[in-house]
Amino acid sequence: xxxxxxNNIRARLGASYPFAGRYLDVDGLAYHYLEEGRGAPVVMxxxxxxxxxxxxxxxxxxxxxxxxxxxxxxxxGLSAKPRDSAYPFTLDRRVADFGRLMxxxxxxxxxxxxxxxGGMIGLAWAMDHLDRVAxxxxxNTAGFFPPGNKRIPRRLWLIxxxxxxxxxxxxxxxxxxRGAVWMAARKSLSKEARQGLLAPxxxxxxxxATLRFVQDIPxxxxxxxxxxxxxxxxxxxxxxxxxxxxxxxRHDFVFDTDYYAEWRRRFPQAPxxxxxxxxxxxxxxxxxxxxxxxxxxxxxxxxxxxRG
Length: 308
What we know:
The protein is an alpha/beta fold and 308 residues long. It has helices spanning 3-13, 56-62, 91-104, 117-127, 154-161, 163-172, 175-183, 191-198, 208-215, 226-235, 257-266, 282-285, 287-307, and strands at residues 22-26, 29-36, 41-45, 67-71, 110-116, 133-141, 244-251, 272-279.
């Protein structure tokens, strides 16, 4: 993505995305991230097809008292938009990119906020760096394969497996990202929110990551990333001694209440809230309530730490 294209997006979004942004060079590709505020680091990891814009409300609320960091995965948001020849678009590579940012910023005592595919990316990194993780907030995501051997939704299956359908639909018509702004939230999103969520995916080339994310979903042994998901799922119990908060939008057509139930089964002591009036884009449906709950959660951890 050119500097002119990035500046154009920032100009169009204006006050809805008032963050300066920073870049990390990852093998010659520009990895964009936000870094706002000071204090304990809160790292927000997005999924597909969102980007750091999705966390804007949470950043605004927390930044006065916390160091808020939100990367854009390669090919997403304001990060570089490489072709397949320059970037593999695999789960393991995304975990490695995320790790490079955590090392670059020299972060310790990290509070992770995870959504959608950002959950698996953040958790895969966390399993190898638990000494650097202070807490986790889980929102409409997974750390395991579909529970109960359930199938992925048919629309995802079509994109994952039928390239003749997926390429014109996702790259040409942008149906994945456009469909999400109408289906992933329970309420009708504002024009500002729709414009912001779609802004980086304005050309077929800029939509490649949204397609590759779906095509990279590991379902069977031998799929790229399958071993990583299996490892994370098998090791999730290691998070039992970390503060963990579960916030969930009930009306999610992918990460539905079966996923929520699986998180509750694995972490029955964790505080949890199922929002009946929210969908997959939980932070769009319930920005005030979710940010208030996350702030309370983080402040309780700080208070407990200060008391020793």
